[in-house]
Amino acid sequence: MRKFHAFIASISVALLFAAYLAGCSDHGTPPPGAPIGGDFVLRSADGPVDTRALRGKVLLIYFGYTHCPDVCPASLAAAAQALHTLSVEERPKVRLIMVSVDPERDTPARLKEYAAYFHPEMIGVTGTPEEIAAAARSFGAGYIRQPAQPDGSYAVDHTTRTYVLAPDGRLAASLELNAPADKYLETVRGLLK
Ligand code: NI
């Protein structure tokens, strides 16, 4: 039940933070005045990840955490499935980046191991709580750490959208929870043209 409650809570948080996008859910384009995303420099196990250094690539940016029981794995699996469908020419032009909203437990090493499970082009990044908060804020993403369970574990409810940055760095779309792999693929390919 705990898992279920966490799942529902995640959705509630997502709806809260994504409410401004509700009218545009068909095509995922943010309306005027919505957060437009922003560049960040965060840390991976292989060094700093600077979105400005990734211009020319389509970036799929997801705010989540490795202990997430259900929502993160489902979203990341759909994104990864789309990446697996890309041609060998297309694949180097796309990166899937998970920004951890749980810097306390998600070390760069743990994030690397987690990312490798999904796709070779996936990168897990973390930073200070302030750096992560700033990155999330620029995309209009939110997250709330829940109280710890008796065993010390805790959930972090978070926005479940996947933000899609075009090769020129602009926020081109955001994909909702449960978007199928085909939707990720279509969005990525549309931006690679
Ligand atoms: Ni999650």
Can you put this structure into words, describing what you see?
There is one protein chain. The chain is α/β, with parallel strands linked by helices and 193 residues long. The chain has one domain (2-192): 3-Layer(aba) Sandwich (Glutaredoxin), CATH 3.40.30.10. Helices cover 34% and strands 21% of the residues. It is built from five helices and nine strands; from the N terminus they run αβββαβαβαββββα. The strands form three sheets. The chain has a five-stranded mixed β-sheet with strand order 5-4-3-8-9, sandwiched between helices. Helix 2 links the parallel strand 3 and strand 4 (94-100). Helix 2 (71-85) packs across helix 5. The longest helix is centred in the N-terminal third of the chain and has 17 residues, at 2-18. The radius of gyration is 15 Å and the shape is globular. It starts with a helix and ends with a helix. Residues 7-27 have low confidence and may be disordered. Bound molecules: nickel (II) ion. Nickel (II) ion is lined by residues 64-65, 68, 71-72, 158.
Task: Report the C-alpha radius of gyration, rounded.
Answer: 15 Å
Structural class by SSE content: alpha/beta
Tally the helices: 5
Proportion of helical residues: 25-40%
CATH topology: Glutaredoxin
Question: What is the highest CATH level, the class?
Answer: Alpha Beta
**Total domain count:** 1
Shape: globular
Name of the CATH architecture: 3-Layer(aba) Sandwich
Beta fraction of the residues?
Answer: 15-25%
Chemical compounds bound to the protein: nickel (II) ion
- Element pattern in H and E: HEEEHEHEHEEEEH
Low-confidence stretches: 7-27
- What kind of sheet is the major sheet? 5 strands, mixed
